[in-house]
Amino acid sequence: MSFKLDNLGWFYRGKMEQSATLSESLDHKIVYYMLVTCTVVGFLTVFARLIQFARLMLSLFVLPGRELRTFGQPSKTWALVTGASDGIGKEFALQLSRAGYSTLLVSRTASKLDALAAEIKSKYNTSTKILAMDFGANNDDDYAKLKALVDSLDIAILINNVGASHSIPVPFTQTEQSEVNSIITINCMATLRVTQLVAAGMVQRKRGLIVTMGSFGGLFPTPLLATYSGSKAFLQQWSTALGSELAPYNVQVELVQSYLVTSAMSKIRKSSALVPTPRAFVKSVLGKVGRTGGAQGWTHTSTPYWSHAILQWSVNAFVGPGNMLLLTYNRWMHKDIRKRALAKQARINGKKGL
């Protein structure tokens, strides 16, 4: 009896040892397959990032954009530029005139439009028409005058450049109602109304280019510029949807994303690698039509200026546009800008004795 019990004990001990060996072997296999899976996923992730970066470099520095003449013969068609009297809008007008297009210039100040029309005539000898209108007023009579001009011309290119921002960074709860109304009316309503007037003719002619100026302020949520940021985010969604609607009619819609450019709106006078002049920026826009640049993943969108494109690509690839760290940095930066702007205004008021 004792012999049988001993044999039974050895039997169970053997089974337990065998089970432990199998369990240990299974654990090793699980670890092995997890390591293989992580390695493959990591490799594919890195490979995908390299492919995206290669696409970025090709888009920025190698591949040409669509030629402007495909949207309309320059000597026979027109380009309409809103916000044309200063900065980026003025540069669009000059470069399109140099390309041979006649230009319809629309902005608030008649004297600046007259001066720009005279400059275009002397430099490029192309035709111009001007219309002085305040987009912030949202006046139906002004839009009726614009419609009459648009209907009489073959407009091949529309540049939606007119825009407004906050005078200085400001918390939303402290933003004047007049400033909120102005930003929404100019950035959103004016862009929609002008585009609706022009797009109908483009659809009939089955050709055209609609360029709308976006902003990193709409791409990345921007505290203390909340109304402006929201208005530019709206333009991203609207422009992408419009691009899909008009694509069957050979009308190309493109939202142009940008960081800072030297201009009256940005209040930056000195250019740098990250802050180009209007001339350099507009040259990149017109030279890269149809190329996404840094705006990978967004149809009907382009970030054509090289440093802006690399910045956008890097944020999207490694941080994320809505990341808490980026949002916090944006808030801190604009709080600092507001603090310095208020201090400057206090010094000016002190000198004036206010």
UniProtKB/TrEMBL annotation:
Principal location: endoplasmic reticulum
Reactions accelerated catalytically: a very-long-chain (3R)-3-hydroxyacyl-CoA + NADP(+) = a very-long-chain 3-oxoacyl-CoA + NADPH + H(+)
Ranges that cross the membrane: 30-51, 209-228, 310-330
Keywords (A to Z) from UniProt: Endoplasmic reticulum, Fatty acid biosynthesis, Fatty acid metabolism, Lipid biosynthesis, Lipid metabolism, Membrane, NADP, Oxidoreductase, Transmembrane, Transmembrane helix
Coiled coil: none
Pathways per UniProt: Lipid metabolism; fatty acid biosynthesis
Top EC group: oxidoreductase
Family statement: Belongs to the short-chain dehydrogenases/reductases (SDR) family.
Binding-site list for substrate: S215
EC code: 1.1.1.330
Mode of membrane association: Single-pass membrane protein
GO process terms (BP): fatty acid elongation; sphingolipid biosynthetic process
Pfam families given in the database record: adh_short
Physiological role: Component of the microsomal membrane bound fatty acid elongation system, which produces the 26-carbon very long-chain fatty acids (VLCFA) from palmitate. Catalyzes the reduction of the 3-ketoacyl-CoA intermediate that is formed in each cycle of fatty acid elongation. VLCFAs serve as precursors for ceramide and sphingolipids.
Gene Ontology MF: a single term: very-long-chain 3-oxoacyl-CoA reductase activity
Subcellular location: Endoplasmic reticulum membrane
Protein name: Very-long-chain 3-oxoacyl-CoA reductase
Keyword NADP attributed: yes
Active site: Y228 (proton acceptor)
Gene Ontology CC, one term: endoplasmic reticulum membrane
